[in-house]
Amino acid sequence: MKSDDPPRRRAPGMSQERRREMIVMAALPLVAEYGAAVTTAQIAKAAGIGEATVFRAFTDKDELLDACVAEALRSDHVLEQLASVPLDQPLTERLAEAADAMRAHMTRIGSVLGALHASGRRSRGPQPRELPDRATSFRATREALTELFEPDRDRLRLPPERLAALFLSLMFAGARGAAGDPESSITEVVDVFVHGILK
After folding, report:
1. Residue ranges of the domains in the chain?
2. How would DSSP label each residue in 21-79?
3. What fold, for 74-199?
4. Confidence of residue 179 (pLDDT cuts 50, 70, 90)
5. pLDDT tens profile 115-148
6. What is the DSSP letter of 126?
7. Contact 115, 31 (CB under 8 A)
8. Domain 15-73: top CATH class
9. Is the pLDDT of residue 175 over 80?
10. In this predicted model, what pLDDT tens digit does every residue of 56-97 receive, in sequence order?
């Protein structure tokens, strides 16, 4: 470096909150695969950081696993996807996109919680502070679905708000029963929901 070159500045450090988010995103697929048996060394390697950095961001592995559960349960991602569904599409296509987004969201929740449960981890008592409020998430998802029914309000047998609640219930029931009925497709479910079961 020449003497007249300006001194190099170090890149600004990552905030603690951003570092935690980055570690959690790297940890999620590992938690879904290994459950509580995942090691902080595996997580650090996936995140491209040293293991000591994990413990500067989280008190211990349990706190990190709690943060992974909270992230899996967050509805932000699915709400963004629902909001991006084009309203000028036919109703069946709108609902198929919505169902696909919701199924992916519930699959992620199931894989993380299922892996933790299968590996012997139980709740430590009070839920983590950052755990999303289920009632608020449910209401926000129902409102996002209501918007997808709204363009067809005049053609619907029930108000969009009621149909959104029914569709949401159907999606939750489908997620619980998916293992027992792997043949059911999103297109089939949406078609029956929109057109009924009669010929």
Report:
1. 15-73, 74-199
2. HHHHHHHHHHHHHHGGG--HHHHHHHHTS-HHHHHHHSSSHHHHHHHHHHHHH--HHHH
3. Tetracycline Repressor; domain 2 (1.10.357)
4. very low
5. 999 999 876 554 555 566 788 889 999 999 999 9
6. S
7. yes
8. mainly alpha
9. no
10. 999 999 999 999 999 999 999 999 999 999 999 999 999 999
Tell me if 138 sits within 8 A of 106, measured CB to CB: no
Q: What pLDDT is stored for residue 121 in this prediction?
A: 87
Report which of 91, 76, 109, 97 is spatially closest to residue 156, judged by C-alpha positions.
91
**Tokens 């600004």, located at residue:** 12
Are 46 and 30 contacting, i.e. CB atoms less than 8 angstroms apart? yes
- Count Cα atoms within 13 angstroms, Cβ side, for 189: 25
Maximum pairwise Cα distance, the chain:
83
How high is the mean pLDDT of the chain? 87
Pair 26, 38: CB distance under 8 Å: no
Work out the number of other CB atoms within 10 angstroms of the CB of residue 198. 4
